[in-house]
Design a protein that fits this description.
Elements lengths: L1 E10 L2 E9 L8 E7 L5 E5 L2 E4 L2 E6 L13 E11 L4 E5 L1 E2 L6 E4 L2 E7 L5 E6 L6 E3 L2 E4 L3 E7 L1 E2 L2 E2 L1 E9 L5 E5 L2 E2 L4 E7 L7 E11 L2 E8 L10 E4 L3 E7 L5 E7 L3 H12 L2 H20 L11 E5 L8 H13 L4 E6 L4 H6 L4 E3 L3 H9 L2 E4 L14 E4 L23 H12 L4 E4 L2 H10 L5 E4 L6 H5 L2 H11 L6 E5 L8 E3 L2 E2 L7 H8 L3 E5 L18 E3 L6 H7 L2 E4 L4 H5 L6 E3 L4 H7 L14 E2 L3 H12 L8 H10 L7 H15 L1
Parallel strand pairs: 1-9, 13-23, 27-28, 27-30, 28-29, 30-31, 31-32, 32-33, 34-37, 34-39, 37-38, 39-40, 40-41
Antiparallel strand pairs: 1-2, 2-6, 3-4, 3-7, 5-6, 7-8, 7-12, 10-11, 11-12, 14-15, 15-21, 16-17, 18-19, 18-22, 20-21, 22-23, 22-26, 24-25, 25-26, 35-36
């Protein structure tokens, strides 16, 4: 049997630990978790608080219980074991870890963090007696215009108020103060300090001032991790330079100075290379080395600088969870080399948004893919793509499964493949994934069975859904304006699934809307608009030219989360989009006009379609229009018990920090090398 720490939640001052159990044999009635501190060999036993199902158990702990007064010990490193007392013998296994956390303050002078050792075993670290003069931040970066900081705004669940960032000049003790007014995610703040505010020829140090439970506190900002991957140099007009440095005590220095002149730069380069001829030879050597690496297409070696390849839906979009992760990486670690694998159709988007890219299926694409250290994708790479052993492949997947997938599909009817070939390719690809993101326990179990997957699962929620949790009403209004949707009208979104039987021949697909647009306009057209989100394979098969006054086709819009946010109601059938839309606690209608055909002749379902869905089911277009009218009159589903039962089962795990958790996972891999 294996036990894996798969999640940690905060609840009423306690830490709720979830463990995934694999290959469970026998009863868990006599099982418990044993925590053993590596240095003192102290031990703490905690009972299993709750068995969520046959392989997910929950244990409640209070982190305050895991440190104690002991001479010369301020760091406590707890290993976790599962003990199961059987009739004939006692089984003890060490718990593995899939959960890596940032540090969480217990008090001003203590914090805890969940981590893993070199063998992937879970560690619960507590540090006490830290200085009450220090405040840990998450990142610090220089952009072209600003000094940007991010950090947490809670201490053990208590919100920090009235935060201000202070840049203190070490030369004359002058101060620049900036209030914290923006948040990055739930529980995190972000601050931008204009670079033009930084005094010339100065060395400044960063501080924070805030109110906590009635006390005003001033602390020095520190960062424990290296500045690798973050942007630490900026150049201003007038040859002014600004750099970030980390002191030996983790403090952060902001230095402004006059940059070197052109003659000084040439002199420095010549001195380093012993003259102009040597400089030319150095350049030629580097070009030749690059050429040789290109020629040796087999046996690639990784880039010296950490490089991450992102891909979404086989390069057809720059979107979904990979894009959410990418944006956090660009904010926190812009110094890391990040490249998107795209189809040629996405070149314009990438250029407009300053995104580095490589076009798929080119020589350059092969070279970059093979030399990168990390792949982050939401779909499968072709089976002929070689994965080097130094690559960490993170699969975010693209939905909570409603329809059967992978090995669970008994009859594959997609063009260009057979059931046996589809199964074989699916398992082969899944076994290349080093880590697979899961949004909930339900999905974890399906991924294990349908993919034949036994590697690491990151049960953190889908990063793409962070936007649903962190976006405010003003930002939603801005998205509406950007999309050209009237602010004074309600929005109904129709997002049906792609059906395996919608292809006419290879490369050609068919689809017709299963309700009459004239009837919709007659019933709701005055104060409601309809937006369509069709599968990319069939989006071009629709003709809505006669309904442009109230129907918007956003099938090719890359960020579906924006469409969720502007919608007051979702209509779908078998698409997994409703699992994500439920985060908003807005009404969902189901219109399975071909339910029996789809269930019996196509893929089938994991859930009980009639009983487990979070909304009403319409059997025909007349019922659909009636249910739309009722749903628009009841926009908030938080008081609906059936809906909230669904929400708690499928959505509650996501705290709006999923993207950050994947970033932390990658950075842990980088810093562990």
């Amino acid at each position: 049997m294996r036990a894996i720490l798969s999640g940690v939640h905060q609840k009423k001052g306690l830490q709720v630990l979830e463990f995934e159990l694999l290959d469970v044999t026998g009863s868990l009635e006599q099982a418990y978790m044993l925590f053993v501190e590596k240095n003192s060999l102290a031990s703490i036993m905690k009972p299993i608080t709750k068995v969520l199902n046959h392989n997910i158990v929950r244990v409640n702990i209070d982190a305050q219980d895991f440190h104690f007064d002991m001479a010369d010990q301020t760091e406590f490193e707890w290993q976790i074991f599962m003990v199961n007392n059987g009739v004939d013998h006692t089984n003890v296994i060490q718990v593995e870890s899939e959960y890596l956390s940032d540090r969480h303050q217990l008090e001003l002078t203590s914090y805890y963090q969940f981590n893993s050792d070199a063998q992937g075993m879970a560690l619960f670290n507590i540090r006490t007696h830290q200085s009450d003069e220090d405040f840990m931040i998450n990142s610090v970066n220089l952009t072209d215009t600003d000094l940007e900081l991010t950090g947490y705004n809670k201490i053990n669940g208590i919100k920090i108020k009235n935060q201000r960032i202070i840049l203190r000049n070490q030369t004359n003790n002058g101060k620049l103060e900036y209030p914290v007014s923006k948040r990055m995610f739930q529980g995190m703040f972000t601050v931008s300090i204009p670079l033009t505010d930084i005094p010339q020829n100065s060395v400044g140090e960063l501080y924070i001032k805030y109110d906590l439970e009635g006390n005003e506190i001033t602390q020095r900002l520190i960062i424990s991790k290296s500045l690798s991957g973050q942007s630490t140099i900026a150049q201003l007009p007038g040859n002014r330079m600004i750099t970030l440095e980390k002191r030996f005590d983790n403090g952060i220095l902001v230095k402004e100075f006059l940059g070197a002149s052109l003659l000084q730069k040439i002199g420095a380069a010549g001195g380093k290379a012993h003259g102009v001829i040597d400089v030319i030879r150095m350049v030629q050597d580097k070009l030749n080395l690059a050429r040789m690496r290109f020629l040796f297409r087999s046996g690639h070696s990784p880039y010296e600088n950490t490089t991450i390849i992102f891909e979404s839906f086989g390069g057809r979009q720059v979107s979904d969870s990979p894009y959410a992760i990418y944006k956090v990486f660009k904010t926190l670690y812009p110094g890391i080399n990040m490249i998107w694998s795209i189809d040629r159709s996405q070149k314009s988007f990438c250029k407009q948004n300053g995104i580095a890219y490589v076009v798929r299926r080119t020589n350059k694409w092969v070279r970059i893919l093979e030399k990168s250290q990390f792949w982050i994708s939401n779909a499968r790479f072709p089976t002929w793509v070689k994965k080097p052993n130094y690559v960490t492949y993170i699969q975010t997947w693209h939905g909570t499964p409603l329809k059967k997938l992978g090995l669970d599909i008994e009859n594959v009817s997609m063009p260009g493949t057979t059931t046996a070939k589809y199964h074989k390719n699916f398992v082969r690809e899944a076994n290349r994934w080093d880590a697979l993101v899961s949004p909930n326990d339900y999905s974890t179990q399906i991924f294990r069975s349908a993919f034949g997957f036994n590697n690491q699962i990151l049960k953190i929620g889908y990063p793409r859904n962070d936007e649903l949790i962190n976006t405010n009403p003003d930002e939603i209004a801005a998205i509406k304006e950007q999309l050209g949707i009237p602010l004074d009208k309600k929005v109904v979104m129709y997002a049906p699934t792609y059906r395996d039987n919608q292809f006419a021949e290879k490369g050609k697909y068919t689809f017709e809307l299963p309700f009459d647009l004239d009837d919709f306009r007659k019933s709701f057209g005055d104060d409601t608009v309809l937006i369509l989100r069709m599968h990319y394979l069939i989006s071009n098969a629709l003709d809505i030219s006669n309904y442009s006054d109230f129907v918007y086709d956003f099938s090719n819009y890359p960020n579906i989360s924006d469409l969720y946010l502007v919608s007051d109601l979702l209509i779908t059938d078998y698409s997994s989009v409703f699992f994500d839309y439920a985060y908003l606690k807005r009404p969902i209608l189901f219109y399975p006009y071909d339910y029996h055909l789809y269930k019996e002749e196509l893929r089938g379902f994991y859930l009980n379609y009639e009983k487990d869905l979070p909304g009403k089911i319409a059997g025909n277009s007349k019922e659909l229009l009636a249910e739309i009218n009722h749903a628009l009159a009841h926009p908030d589903m938080s008081a609906n018990q059936k809906f909230m039962n669904f929400y708690n089962r499928f959505c509650a795990i996501n705290d709006g920090l999923s993207s950050l958790k994947v970033v932390n996972y990658v950075m842990h891999q980088i810093e562990s090398v």
